[in-house]
Amino acid sequence: MLAYILRRLLLVIPTLFGIMVVNFALTQFVPGGPFDQITARMNNDGDAIEAVSGASGKDAGADTQGGKGYVGARGLPPEFRAKLEVEFGFARFICPPGFTGTALQQAKTCEKQMIPAYERFFIMMGKFIRFDFGESYFKSQSVVGLILEKMPVSITLGLWSTLIAYLISIPLGIRKAVRDGSKFDTWTSGVVIVAYSIPSLLVSVMLLVLLAGGSYWKLFPLRGLTSENFSELSLLGKALDYLWHITLPVIASTISSFATLTLLTKNSFLDEIKKQYVMTARAKGLSENRVLYGHVFRNAMLIVIAGFPALFISVFFGGSLIIENIFSLNGLGQLGFDAAVGRDYPVVFGTLFAFGLMGLVVGIISDLMYVWIDPRIDFDRRG
């Protein structure tokens, strides 16, 4: 088993490297880089330079005679753009020996040398290996800090959705297996397949329209994770307010995940029910419940329980982007969406690296759980 784990860990390196290479290469062809974003913000807000870099309009070479927004209308001043290119890692300054000065003075005096894309990639990966993801271009905050700030919302959504999916799917799957081929099995299979086929986007919109005051009943809040007066509520009131806000997002996230788990549970039980030891237990006169829950259950649940980490990660990553945007939940999905739209590359690549590594490690943990739950599984022999 140790050799298998070592092989899987070594496989993580080229897999993660390939993921980063493909996504980094794609960004080189996407129009509208961070400098276009800054210029667009300047057109809408004359203080955008100060908000982005901390520099004043005077330091940035702004001419205030034209009024607010005049600099944005002219685009970025050359010296300020050169300073930003160095700060963002697109270029470097080559200064005379012994030269010292501020970043803007370097931009005016020193020669700017653009860094090739392949070199920027390896510089980035060298930092990522040390888990140094840098700072956001526009939020003046470290990428790690942003991830830690947004992660509780996404973990909450993923954990609740996964737990509810298990609570629904396991009893339903067992019932379908016991009554295989009956009317109950037929119509529940139809419901499960329909639920699985409906996209999360459509489910979310339907829930908002029906239950959040869109056109019919206003039973749940439209957006957010807590109410405005959350801090003033009692402990019980905070818990109820939180559950009230999280209900619709969790339902939208759970709809598609419980379908696969239900069919997996049913098929796993059907496979076990047909085995010889079940016939022997029935021949000994054991009750049907004793056979099902005393013998079949623990064997049939191996694959279902061992798949918990993988299911949680799939719900955590797969549904968070759509669900969080529709319900205005300030989590990792919203963070990733805003970073991609705003071309905030440190956040995009930092989160991609962290989540890619997390997904690969969870795959290994899932395999270890299979072995831990069922010692008969031997990946070394299979390899």
Helix content: 55-70%
Low-confidence stretches: 46-74
Radius of gyration over alpha carbons?
A: 27 Å
Q: Give the H and E element order.
A: HHHHHEHEHHHHHHHHHHHHH
Spatial arrangement of strands, main beta sheet? 1-2
- How far apart are the first and last residues' alpha carbons, in Å? 10 Å
Let me know the average pLDDT. 78
In one word, what is the shape?
Answer: globular
Structural class: mainly alpha
- Strand coverage percent: under 5%
DSSP summary: helix tally: 19
Number of E-type strands: 2
Main sheet specs:
2 strands, antiparallel
For the structure shown, list the relevant keywords.
383 residues, mainly alpha, two-stranded antiparallel sheet, 19 helices
Structure explained in plain terms:
By secondary structure, the protein is mainly α. Helices cover 70% and strands 2% of the residues. The chain has helices at 2-27, 34-44, 48-53, 70-74, 78-87, 103-109, 117-129, 143-178, 183-197, 200-211, 235-273, 276-283, 288-300, 302-306, 308-318, 320-326, 332-341, 345-373, 379-382, and strands at residues 91-94, 111-114. A two-stranded antiparallel ribbon has the order 1-2. α8 (143-178) crosses α15 (308-318), α10 crosses α11 (235-273) and α15 (308-318) packs antiparallel against α18.
